[in-house]
Structures are given as C-alpha cells and as structure tokens.
Amino acid sequence: MRPETPSVARFREYLQIQTVHPKPDYETCREYLKHQAEEIGLEFKSVEYVAGKPVIIMSLPGTNPELPSIILNSHTDVVPVFECCSIWPEFWDYPPFSAERVPDGDDFKIYARGSQDMKVVGSCYLEAIRNLKAAGKSLSRTLHLTFVPDEEIGGIDGMAYFVKSQDFKDLNAGFALDEGIANVGPELYAFYGERSPNNVKFTARGETGH
Fold it and tell me: Could you say which of 150, 151, 152, 157 is catalytic?
C-alpha cells in the first residue's frame, strides 16, 4: 500500500470530525477549516445566521477584484449512521468516522461517512488551491470557498440565510460550483444536478390508501 500523503492525512482528519445529524460538531469543523485556511494563506471568515451553525467563507483575492468572483461551495454536514442504535456494523465494514485507510492492491480506499457526500469535494477544493498557491500562480478573478451547514436537512439555517445576506452580496459572485460526485477513475464528468428548487404543496381529501 502506498504511504499516506499529507493531502490524504488532511482529508482523513476532516472525515473524522463528526458533523453528523442530529447533533453535528460544527465547532470542531470550523477550527479545522480555519487551520487549513491559515496554512494555505487564505482569508477566513465565519458567520452565523443561526447560533452554532457557521457558514465559512475562505477567499483568494484575484488580480482584478472588479471582475465577478467564482464560488466553490460544499457542505460540512453528513447524514446519520445510527451508531446510537448499534446497527452500523450491519452496513459498515469499518467504523464510519474512523476514516480507515484500507489496502486495495497497490493503492488504498478510505471508508467514512462523508467520503463521497461531500467532504471529498471540499477537500479537493482546498488541495487544488494549496497547489495553486505553492506554484506561485494567481487568478484574475477572486475565488471564494464556502462551507455551509445543514444541507442534508434542507439548508434552512445555512445556505437559505446566506444567499439573502449582505455577506453573500459582497462576494460579487458570477459563477458557482456546488455538489458533485468524485470519480475513482481519471475521467472528469461535468453535469448539473439541480437548477432551482420548485416546491409544490398538494392537498388530498378522502380515504387514505397506498
């Protein structure tokens, strides 16, 4: 098995933070992300529209700040694994927050809640910018990384408040990338998942059935 690289170690540390509903540990997550921003050299801002549910904004200023910016968004929360009921061993080969690194031929796999949805994407954003900075590259547009809470339960206390805030308006966003699925192969797929929500309320009267 290949030795663990610093980027993999950082990813595993992120996965081990239990931002799992119904009581996600957002404070530990915020401190982790703050440390990453400081290491990379990014501007860091944490705002709370609902107490205990931080929205994190990291920024890499561009050479032409008048241009509309680019936002790379990800969410920090993950869905439950029902550890409280001691049933996770039925569905997991390894503890879901151990971020176990398991040999797979000459390579390895990492088992953890959030390894796909979607801490892997947030980690990829951070590592890409880390490499960009290390190479001495600069962008004409300002780049913002946003990490939002509560996406898995609707985003009401996170993104819903954020996009209506002055904090969001100040980002001068022209383009945003959101949730996608990481591919284990070398291919890169471009797709869209949703364009805008459309909520419909139905009222049915009469006897219930199935």
Answer: 151
Query: Domains of the chain: which residue ranges?
Result: 6-177
Return the CATH superfamily for domain 6-177. Zn peptidases (3.40.630.10)
Most confident of 35-39, 181-185, 198-202: 35-39
Whether 157 sits among the annotated catalytic residues: the reply is no
At 40-87, the pLDDT tens digits run 999 999 999 999 999 999 999 999 999 999 999 999 999 998 655 555
- Which residue type, as a one-letter code, is found at position 40? I
Comparing CA positions, the residue from 188, 43, 27 lying closest to residue 129 is: 43
Q: Report how far apart, in Å, the C-alpha atoms of 88 and of each of 24, 110, 159, 194 are.
A: 18, 17, 30, 31
Is the pLDDT at 207 greater than 90, yes or no? no
Alpha carbon 198 to chain centroid, angstroms: 24
Nearest to 142 by CA among 42, 56, 8: 42
170 is catalytic: no
